[in-house]
Specification:
This protein is 33% helix and 18% strand. By secondary structure, it is of the alpha/beta class. α5 crosses α6, α6 runs parallel beside α7 and α7 runs parallel beside α8.
Length: 482
C-alpha cells in the first residue's frame, strides 16, 4: 500500500470554516483529517500540496516515520500553519492504519483505558445567573452535561476599576453556585486578556471560594516563568496549552510547574502522534490533559480516540454544532460523555466521513468546486522554472510567456479568485502572469503526461493496460486527466 494523492475540502461548522483533508492510497483505502483554522484558511491547501510531495509513494501505515519526516524536512521548526497541515496528515494516516488493520484507532494506541469520554460544554459568555442556570439545565437535559465553561468577564475589563470587575465576577459566580445543582462544574476561560500577572491572581482569588473546575489561560503563554509564579499564588486548578505547539514547549511549562491541567489541541500540535508525547510528559509531572477542541465533528472523533487511550485524560471540550451537514453520524454526548464504540473495522473517523464524501463527489468530478485540481507530482524542472518566473513577476510583461519544452502535454490550474497564472486556451504550453496576486505558489499547479488512465463510460477510470471494462465490457477512451 502506498499514498497516491490528496484532496482538500473547505467545509463549515456553524459560522466557522473547516478544512478537511483526504489521503488516498493504492489499495483504495482513504483517510481523513482536519486542520486548525489559524487563518488565512486558503493558505492551507497549497501547503498540503507541498507536503504531499514528501509523503507520496510512502506506506501510510508508517505514521511515526512520515510525521517525523515532515517535521525534520523543515529547515526551521514548522509554525502554526505548518503544524496544522501536519496535524491533518497525521489524522488521516492513523485513519488509514485503523482501516487497514480492521481496528479502531484507540486499539492501535494501546487500547482504551475507559469506555466513555467525559465532555464539558463551552458556553464562552458570561450570562446573568438565571440565564446561565437555564442554559446549563437545558444542556443537561438534552445531552447530560454536568460541566460547562464560562467567561469570567461580565463587562469590558479595560473599562472601570479592576477591583470592581473582580468583585462582580466573584459575586456573580457565587450566585450561579446558589441556584444551580451542586454537582455542576463551571470552568472559566480568561482568553489571555490579562497582561499583569497580579491581576490574574486577584481574579483567581475571587472565583476560588466557589470551587471552579479550572481557570484557563488568564495571561499570554510565551513567558513560562510568569506561569510558574502565577501557579504558586493561586488556589484553583490552572489550565493552559491551546497556544503551545510542541512537546518541547509543554516540557518547559511542566518543568517550571506552570500548570495543573494542560490543553493541547490535536489539530495544532501535529496530530495524534505529538499529542501522545505531550500527554506522556504531563503524566510524568502528575498533570492531567483536557484537550482544547473548538473544532468540527471530525476533530472531535480524533480526540475521542486519543482520550479513550490516554491514562491522564481529564475532560474534553465539546460544544454541539448546529449546522454541519457533511457529518452524517457525529459523536454526540450521552449522559455528559461520548462513547468510544462500537466503531468497528472502519477506522477512527467513520462516523464523520460519509456525508462529506457524498457531498464532495456530487460535483461530478470528485472534488469540491473550489478545489478542482489533479493531485499528481509536478515536474521538477517545470517547478524550478515557475519559481524563477514568479521571482521575476514585478518585471514581467503581462503577455503570454513561453514555457520551456519539458515534455508536458497538458497542464491544469486550479480556478480560484485572483489566480496567478492562466492557461492560454489556444496553446496550453504557454502561460500568462495575472497581476495583483499577493503570493506565488508553484504547488498550485499540476502536470501529467497522457495517457495516464483509460476511462470506462459506465464504470469510471481503469488502469491504462486495460483496453475494456472487465465489469461491463464497454469500450474505453483515453483521458489525460481523471
Amino acid at each position: 500500500m502506498h499514498i497516491t494523492g490528496i484532496k482538500t475540502y473547505m467545509q463549515r461548522v456553524d459560522d466557522r470554516p473547516r478544512l478537511l483533508l483526504k489521503i488516498e492510497t493504492s489499495e483504495g483505502i482513504s483517510g481523513w483529517g482536519e486542520c486548525y483554522n489559524h487563518g488565512p484558511d486558503w493558505a492551507l491547501p497549497p501547503l498540503l500540496d507541498y507536503l504531499f510531495h514528501q509523503i507520496e509513494g510512502e506506506d501510510p501505515r508508517r505514521v511515526e516515520f512520515l510525521v517525523l519526516k515532515l517535521n525534520q524536512q523543515c529547515r526551521f521548526p514548522p509554525g502554526a500553519l505548518g503544524l496544522a497541515a501536519i496535524s491533518a496528515i497525521d489524522h488521516a494516516l492513523w485513519d488509514i492504519a485503523g482501516k487497514a488493520a480492521g481496528l479502531p484507532v484507540y486499539m492501535l494506541l494501546g487500547g482504551n483505558v475507559r469506555d466513555r469520554v467525559k465532555v464539558y460544554c463551552g458556553v464562552y459568555t458570561a450570562p446573568d445567573p438565571e440565564a446561565a442556570r437555564d442554559q446549563s439545565l437545558e444542556l443537561n437535559e438534552k445531552y447530560g452535561y454536568t460541566a460547562f465553561k464560562l467567561s469570567p468577564y461580565r463587562r469590558d475589563l479595560h473599562v472601570g476599576r479592576w477591583g470592581e470587575l473582580v468583585k462582580e465576577t466573584g459575586d456573580w459566580f457565587g450566585k450561579i453556585r446558589e441556584i444551580t445543582p451542586s454537582h455542576f462544574d463551571y470552568a472559566f476561560d480568561a482568553h489571555a486578556k490579562i497582561f499583569e500577572p497580579y491581576q490574574a491572581v486577584q481574579l483567581a482569588a475571587a472565583i476560588a471560594p466557589n470551587d471552579p473546575l479550572f481557570y484557563e489561560e488568564p495571561i499570554r503563554p510565551e513567558h513560562i516563568p510568569a506561569w510558574a509564579e502565577l501557579k504558586s499564588k493561586v488556589t484553583v486548578p490552572l489550565a493552559t496549552g491551546e497556544s503551545l505547539y510542541s512537546r518541547f514547549e509543554f516540557l518547559s511549562l511542566l518543568s517550571a510547574r506552570g500548570a495543573d491541567i494542560i490543553q493541547p489541541d490535536i489539530c495544532v500540535v501535529g496530530g495524534v502522534s505529538e499529542m501522545r508525547r505531550i500527554a506522556a510528559i504531563a503524566e510524568a509531572h502528575y498533570v492531567t490533559v483536557a484537550p482544547h477542541n473548538p473544532m468540527g465533528p471530525l476533530a472531535t472523533a480524533v480526540n475521542i480516540h486519543f482520550c479513550a487511550a490516554q491514562p491522564n485524560f481529564k475532560v474534553l471540550e465539546f460544544k454541539p454544532h448546529v449546522h454541519a451537514p457533511w457529518a452524517a453520524d457525529p459523536y454526540m454526548p450521552v449522559d455528559g460523555h461520548k462513547y468510544c464504540g462500537p466503531i468497528g473495522p472502519a477506522g477512527a473517523w467513520r462516523s464523520t466521513r460519509r456525508r462529506c464524501r457524498a457531498r464532495t463527489t456530487s460535483t461530478g468530478s470528485g472534488r469540491s468546486p473550489a478545489n478542482r485540481m489533479v493531485r499528481r507530482p509536478i515536474h521538477e524542472k517545470f517547478r524550478i522554472w515557475l519559481r524563477r518566473a514568479n521571482a521575476l513577476q514585478p518585471r514581467l510583461d503581462p503577455e503570454w510567456l513561453p514555457v520551456p519544452d519539458f515534455g508536458l502535454e497538458f497542464i491544469e490550474i486550479r480556478h480560484i479568485p485572483g489566480s496567478i497564472l492562466a492557461v492560454n486556451p489556444q496553446k496550453s504550453s504557454h502561460f500568462r502572469l495575472a497581476f495583483g496576486a499577493t503570493q506565488m505558489r508553484s504547488t498550485w499547479y499540476r502536470t501529467v503526461r497522457p495517457p495516464v488512465w483509460r476511462r470506462c463510460s459506465r464504470q469510471g477510470p481503469l488502469p491504462r493496460h486495460q483496453g475494456a471494462c472487465g465489469r461491463c465490457a464497454s469500450p474505453v477512451k483515453n483521458d489525460a486527466i481523471v
